[in-house]
Amino acid sequence: LFESGKKLPPLPGAGDAANEDAAVPQFLDEPTRPRRRLAWGFAALLALAVLAGQAALYFPAYVTAFVPDSRQDFASACLLLGCEMRLPRDIKLIQIESSELKQYPSGNGVVQLDAAFRNTSTITQEFPVLMLTLTDAADEILARRAIPPQQYLQPADPKVIRSGVPGSSIVNVRLFFDNSQLRAIGYRIALVYPSA
Questions:
Q1: In 3-state terms, the chain is what percent helix, strand and coil (to 5)?
Q2: What tens digit of pLDDT does each residue of 106-130 get?
Q3: Cα(91)–Cα(146) distance, integer angstroms
């Protein structure tokens, strides 16, 4: 099959002389057209501008989070369009670090809830709503309450709430409530963003 001593015959028209004398086809010899190249460049820039506009329209919170200087421009545009500028709301990036429910030392059925949650993202997120569920010994739900940041932040400064949870930060929560009527034994907490 492989014989090193045999020399294969040359292919017809594959010699050096055949390639030197062959004429170049005209379609290969055409000069590039600057107008066509300019038109394609303009079309690509236009498509990129449309894509950036769509990203700004559908994801303004993330655009302003990554480019903070653009927030004022987006806020002005929202005033004209009647929309609301919000911070990013990705609940998967906010995790509960710890929580504990215990009797308050003074007694009288007062219970203290201590919790901490972390923004695992590097960008600022909107403060979530804390969902507290109180249960009995059989883990049956006795009460459920949605607690907005205006109630779980101490002090509840509207400016702090509007500025959001900074990236890579922990928020500590301490709540007191009367448990004398419910006599709850267990609890569950979750963080949610209400649908807009």
A1: 35, 25, 40
A2: 778 889 999 999 999 999 999 999 9
A3: 15
